[in-house]
Specification:
- The protein has four helices and no strands.
- It has 80 residues and is mostly helical.
- The protein has one domain (7-78).
- The longest helix has 17 residues, at 43-59.
Length: 80
């Protein structure tokens, strides 16, 4: 992904690099995204979004749902 940085956004990220918070602009962007997620998105919301995405992939046929027997393979005989 390529992102064009301008104005205040670019200044903030360059300051993060200049002050040693990040080694590169890319790293500064990653750190900023992580901070935003930790500050504004709850763990429950992130888990819910991930599960919704998995459900969507199953419906679209991009992900296979396994039965308990398929998941356990040869160990299924040990579980009742």
């Amino acid at each position: 992904m390529n992102v064009t940085l301008r104005g205040r956004t670019k200044q903030i990220l360059e300051t993060m690099v200049d002050k040693g918070y990040a080694n590169t602009l890319s790293e500064a962007v990653r750190l900023t995204i992580i901070d935003f997620g930790e500050t504004h998105l709850s763990e429950e919301e992130l888990v819910s979004r991930k599960l919704d995405g998995i459900d969507r992939e199953i419906k679209e046929g991009k992900r296979k749902l396994l039965s308990a027997e398929e998941a356990l393979g040869p160990y299924a005989k040990h579980v009742k």
